[in-house]
Amino acid sequence: MEKKYTQGGFTLPGEAGYEQLTLALARKWGADVIRDSDGTKLSPEIVEAGYSIYSTICIIRQHNAFAAQHPDSQQQTFLCSQPVVATGDTLIIEPMQGFFAEQFELNDSAEALPYWQVYDRTTNTVVPLERWTYSGSRVVISQCTPWHEYTVSFLAWRIWEEINMYNHTTNAWTSEHLRQLDPRHPAAWEYLQQWLEDWCVQNPATNVVRLTSLFYNFVWIFGDDLRNRHTFVDWASYDFTVSPAALRAFEAEYGYALTAEDFINQRKLQVTHMPPTRAKRDYMTFIQRFVAEKAKVLVDIIHKHGKLAYVFYDDSWVGMEPYGKHFTSIGFDGLIKCVFSGFECRLCANVDVPTHELRFHPYLFPVGLGSLPTFSEGGNPSRDALLYWRNVRRALLRQPVDRIGLGGYLSLTLPFPDFHDTIESMAIEFRRIREMHAHGKPLTAKCRVAVVHTWGSLRSWTLSGHFHETDKHALIHINEALSGLPVDVRYLSFEDVENGALGDVDVVINAGCTGDAWSGGDAWQSAKLVAELTRFVHEGGVFIGVKEPSAIGGYHTHFRMAHVLGIDLDTGARVCHGRWQYDVEEAPFAIAPTVLGSDSRLYLTDGKASVLCEGNGAPQMTLNRFGKGFGVYMSDFRVTPESTRMLLEMLLHLTGVAPADVYMSDLACVETAFYPADNTLVAVNNAEEETSTVIHTPKGEISLTLAPMETRIMPL
Amino acid sequence: MEKKYTQGGFTLPGEAGYEQLTLALARKWGADVIRDSDGTKLSPEIVEAGYSIYSTICIIRQHNAFAAQHPDSQQQTFLCSQPVVATGDTLIIEPMQGFFAEQFELNDSAEALPYWQVYDRTTNTVVPLERWTYSGSRVVISQCTPWHEYTVSFLAWRIWEEINMYNHTTNAWTSEHLRQLDPRHPAAWEYLQQWLEDWCVQNPATNVVRLTSLFYNFVWIFGDDLRNRHTFVDWASYDFTVSPAALRAFEAEYGYALTAEDFINQRKLQVTHMPPTRAKRDYMTFIQRFVAEKAKVLVDIIHKHGKLAYVFYDDSWVGMEPYGKHFTSIGFDGLIKCVFSGFECRLCANVDVPTHELRFHPYLFPVGLGSLPTFSEGGNPSRDALLYWRNVRRALLRQPVDRIGLGGYLSLTLPFPDFHDTIESMAIEFRRIREMHAHGKPLTAKCRVAVVHTWGSLRSWTLSGHFHETDKHALIHINEALSGLPVDVRYLSFEDVENGALGDVDVVINAGCTGDAWSGGDAWQSAKLVAELTRFVHEGGVFIGVKEPSAIGGYHTHFRMAHVLGIDLDTGARVCHGRWQYDVEEAPFAIAPTVLGSDSRLYLTDGKASVLCEGNGAPQMTLNRFGKGFGVYMSDFRVTPESTRMLLEMLLHLTGVAPADVYMSDLACVETAFYPADNTLVAVNNAEEETSTVIHTPKGEISLTLAPMETRIMPL
């Protein structure tokens, strides 16, 4: 095989003590880069073997000595106590009760206390300062209203870096708890710059500094009770960026002060899945700018030493969203994304950065997701790798990345030689696909899909974490399905829509639950938004609503787009209203009933929509002609081969694209991509069985039989 | 058997042409009254046989000639057109489109048109009068905002009395459509009084005038499309009382004007299951007073002629709610309630009126509920009667009524002699139970239950119709279960609770869905309400929340009583919050898991509540100690023998009553009542099989075997 397919674009995790294995696998897998990992080191023999070297650093967490000397340089957060009911007119609350004392420490410093707030949660009002006192870790509230609930919101130091804490508590580590510095602290910031400078000097062999990642971790709050250990996790929230200094700087810049309640939000916190308040939006922008400014300084140091700076997009990535306004200003040379799913591949591939790299799963660790064995007894890492590859492959067919790689302990792969072979052939397939992309884009239907939600392009492809962390939300299933379809996909905010972004869009998808960021919540107060989408469909567009699309209280329909969808949801007021009877009609495209919901509250608005599927006595999927366009409703969506095929057929049918125009196979488990520049068709078998299929092409049908999971690359 | 058990308190429907049958069954069933029914007449032979005679009249609907001469004396309603999307700046709407033209006729009179309203439903704003015109059954709206939805709200004449319309369309009658007069119309009112006067003179043999019922029907809107025939039905709504005259009188009295939108309410109408607006409350009071005033005039006429006036509590009963403030002022001599269920028996029994009568089911008609055969081939009316009797019997054991009876065509019973026997023994049982009540009240546990909802005592026992019409609501299931339990039951409004009504209450039940009248909706904004209930439980009370109790948005918990219940519902904002793990614990009382829900959104607030049942990965029933009292949560409640038993055991356990104190049996299907004055225990077998059970009494256990459905009356 040509060398271009067997070598390059591959990052291998090296391991000191296993030099022979490292170099043998580097050859087998065609690595051009060797990296260290969290827990592994590279030995001189590896470093000097002629490969490019990536070195991993977590900039904020390797400085316990400094943190001990400067405890006020550590990171913080707002927390809120458990609510406590007043049984008389005096009430004592211990704010820290219920939180994990190894993670948090009360910040009762003179600069922090003014940010504390005592709330009457029964009336939603702040208790005046003169009615409470603090001493000895307790707040004493006087002049309470009996039988009301009170809380104390307070600042807390975060004394254990959360990724370290997670690994520690999960794997029963006994090493020192790592702390984390806040770059907003002047002394810490000086220290960190110097530390990086020194590091670069001390690591001359490193070609690429792989930052894991920047400054602020996603929010991860542990409880002290093991029954409630994971009290809160939000992969895209900003609570862990806060400090009195940040709050002062914000106020100086924005002209208004944030309070604890702007973060605590009635103890619900400001989760990414809900639309942000104005204050949260401002604060995010403020933090994003800060993170970008500081990150640029670090990247400049790295560049000054002739190294490249890649960033790993996980862990302490809050504020550096790759689709945020300030990301490109940092000057990263590469973005590395660990991938379980297709959407993560697209998320990485589309970022404006020179090099895109995927870190594949399984990670070379004894156990993987859900604590199941991978590289240990009972594990089947070769199959795991293939299943993840199946998810990623279909996305890679649509949009290329530059590199792939692995992480972890290479030595753990020794008992699994089939894993070595699997990765070898996967790497070859990756390079062949990458090469076709280099020659020209794959054929894409003239079917331009816009997913519309609160965050718009800022959260393109992702909601806020991996698939399995957000899989309660229909949208992540839709994103995953879309990630491998031959259609054009973009992410728009509601403001984008109001400002005319539908000009070159054929299909709009809105998928979420009432009030959440994905459905849109209060954005649907906008008559302009409703009118623009109504116009869009009436003039020929397609609006696909999933679960509780365009949903908001206060209007004549719960779905603001009910007139387009022909279906609405009764939140209770319509219990006396009769419902239109219907017959279930045959759909003009494949239907995957099992991925739909069973919401009995759904009803036809005017009896005109075609019901394509019913459940629980109510329509669960409808198709409604509206003007020249269509409204499609689905009560849920779960990604499966069949539902992915349903989505594709629906999109093509409603935008007038013939299956043969996109080389569609006749089986849901076989997907294709056609590369016009190479006149080459790729067919992938997503089934674990041998599969015979027919592919419809503009020049006729192609019959073929694919081996289990095969990638067939066929010049036509 | 003593005559007191075989004779009296029974109303028989007579039928001309079947004189022998009528008199034979009168003897067999021990009737003291013979009545006519809708569709039947009594012959002189029957009338002169020495029985009391009830005559049925529907005061507002037997006057088509008058209605033809005075079309403006007919009743009206507000309707709202289908919403229509403007595709340009002019829009034409035909308001009547979609409504049943045999029921409604546009009222475009000079006095009606000012009440019409054109709405932009996209912005929730009224379109100014100068922007629309009306002619030829069409409204033309100009200067529309393109892509907005518009509706026309308008007044319509109701030209077909709804009960007649229902019977007509259901049974394919061909007779003349009956119209209905509005007593607010001065000429109609004069006419109706004179008509009643004349009727009394012409019917000297009538002892009791049975009014079916008063003036205004519950709301029943038919659509012209058979797929949407039953467009709207609300058994307690007030739309059918409206007219320009009523609106003018309201404005004069209340100092503010009602608009169409006060009724139309974004096309949702003001359904009884939702909390009323202030305007609706005022309007209800206004109508209740009007109905009572006019009804009193009619009752006075009846009394003047030496007859009694009974009212049938169904059909045109809007405004005469028997628990309303003005009902007793009418001066009715009796209230007749048709019953399928136990709660209807209690509803009737508790009304402040001299005579309470139940009309049993099945009605003597060929088909019954759900169009199933009763007195026709395939029917089993004897069993039907027994099953309804089973529902009613347990309520009759708790609270007596004075009379029972039947309605319909007696001749239809001829092929069903077992029905004759069933009614005979049922009547005897009724009289025996009634006699025990006359000697003294049955034993009731010191367990005083208050069901708390928006309507309070106005809607004691009922929601707004028969069981099968409201059975989506958990509360009707609870009411039905309670109707036969040996506990004290009352119905309180939230205002009652705030004003101290819990002083002599042990248990509060709140059962409904977010925003509905039964849960309470905006009532839960009241911190005073929350505090009072919190105090109540903390000091030893029990709060039972079912489905979405005390639910409202905008606070730190969705259930305002979450601190008492120990459980709350996540409406989306808590998707990133971990949930307390729990073990399912054994309950201190019987659990009926199948009647609970499966709501995955439920979570424990602080991990302290005992989880008694789980479903869909979440707690579905919890028990939480709070102060000296308890909070109990159930995610749903459906009435079954097992769930009824669960409720009873729970109530007794949490209020410290021993099962033996209330003579509880050891089987859910056997219920009991103990009458101290007669020292008599009654045990009823609700099963259709022979059942052996043990009854726990203060003096030891009683073992007995009951025949299927048996009522065993045992002096101890």
What does the model show?
- Two copies of one chain form a homodimer.
- Chain A folds into four domains: 3-62 and 183-217 and 283-436, TIM Barrel (Alpha-Beta Barrel), CATH 3.20.20.80; 64-178 and 219-277, Immunoglobulins (Immunoglobulin-like); 448-655, Class I glutamine amidotransferase (GATase) domain (Rossmann fold), CATH 3.40.50; 660-715, Immunoglobulin-like.
- The model of chain A has no long low-confidence stretch (mean pLDDT 96).
- The first copy, chain A, is an alpha/beta fold.
- The longest helix of chain A is centred in the middle third of the chain and has 27 residues, at 278-304.
- In chain A, helix 6 (186-202) packs parallel to helix 9 and helix 11 (342-349) crosses helix 12.
- Helices cover 27% and strands 22% of the residues of chain A.
- Chain A is built from 18 helices and 33 strands.
- Chain A is globular, with a radius of gyration of 27 Å.
- Chain A has an eight-stranded parallel beta barrel with strand order 1-2-3-13-16-17-18-19. A seven-stranded mixed sheet of chain A has the order 21-20-22-23-28-27-26.
